[in-house]
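Retro notes - structure team

What went well: the batch runner handled both jobs without manual restarts.
What didn't: labels got mixed up in the shared folder, which is why I'm recording both outputs here explicitly, each with its sequence directly above its tokens.

Job 1
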Amino acid sequence: MAPLAVGSHGDIVGTLLALGYSEREAQAACKGLPENTEVSEGVRLALKNMLK
């Protein structure tokens, strides 16, 4: 299993994992998010990325 991202990205990935997404899906969805994104905004953006 790959290590979680550091900082807010790690929290965003962790939230997506808790929602039932795989680590691979969560990491891919977080790719390209700004570094200092707040968790709630990051989760919203990550979920939006999954729809693309």
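Job 2
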Amino acid sequence: MTRRDDLRVDKALQGADFPADRRTLLTYAQERGADEETLEAMRALPERTYARASEVVDAVPQEPEGDRPGGVER
């Protein structure tokens, strides 16, 4: 996942009601038409209840940017 994933998740959750668990947030993002990259990042979130969107964004797993996992040079 990358920093852009953080931004995509934040955008996908605009207007969501909190607290909410991962499954509820995934459903919300799907219903709002989030793209597959955003949904993939959200599926990697820890299974828990989040009090606010910023907690979700902070929980998005990070990986160095690159063409392949591990941050391979572009």
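One thing worth noting from job 2: The helical segments are 3-12, 22-31, 36-43, 53-59.
We'll revisit the folder naming next retro.
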